[in-house]
Amino acid sequence: MSGRLSDFDYDLPRQLIAQRPLRRREDSRMMVLNRARQTIEHREFRELKMLVQLDDLFVLNDTRVLPARRLSDDGAIEFLFVERIGPRRWKCLVKPGRKMRVGATAKIDNVTSRVEEITPDGERIVALDEDVDVYADGSMPLPPYIRRLGDENDAARYQTVFAHEAGAIAAPTAGLHFTPEILSEIPHTFVTLHVGPGTFLPVRSEDIAEHHMRAERFSISPEAADKINEAHRIIAVGTTTVRTLESAERKGKKVLAQHGTSDLFIYPPYHFRIVDVLLTNFHLPRSTLLMLVSAFAGREFLLRAYEEAIREGYRFYSYGDCMLIL
What we know:
The chain is of the alpha/beta class. The protein has 6 helices and 19 strands. Helix 5 (288-297) packs across helix 6 (299-311).
């Protein structure tokens, strides 16, 4: 099993990167991969309930995305408010970084923000002269491959219909396909993992084992733990749900209700303890997300499926189509 970064690469035509969501969530296509048979089927997401077995349980991440992207008053600087770390102090991602060196300032709602520190990962520690509701006029933090700012449509569509616990700066995108009607037809429960920049931090070393994930907060309620422990087959909706479940403390084979943090980096040949089936979107080349799915499906089988998805014109990434891996 490969541990080289270059073995998780593929070429994607730019036109297949979905820039906007489909008019209806349930209109997404769904590629179905059967690991035992090494087969690939092409289905529609609305057919999901046809593939459910007795005693299956769908586990979904109910984190809510914060409107954490703000422009400075003059429009010259883009801030992504990642984490509040103290009174009027925030950890931020900024663009363009060259304009925001240590000591540089910009105004938000006529309040001065000043860069105090630059972290090794390039994040800025920013201090505000006064309290500001940074989310009041913020927009959805769409990923950079969506080449536009978030708008009113994204406020609804870059959010799952079951989003509840505020705290993420990116959507758990496998959940974006669900409607209330589809959700009502399948057995399910929720866990929470607040998606942060660590999920998308590039892998820079050719030996992927040298990469370290940043910790992200998660929680599993007593009700969710009971349902997970009673289920025959766990269907994880999205990579963040996988990381939550696989990071969870257990007593014997039983998952415990808990609050914790996960810095679990899943890559081949990881042995999955909890997750039996995975519903996920298509992910970027060389990303930790692609590595996680490769560990679940098998790298060669997965990359063959990606090649077929490209030939068939599937839509990729956050607003794209999905795959169900059995």
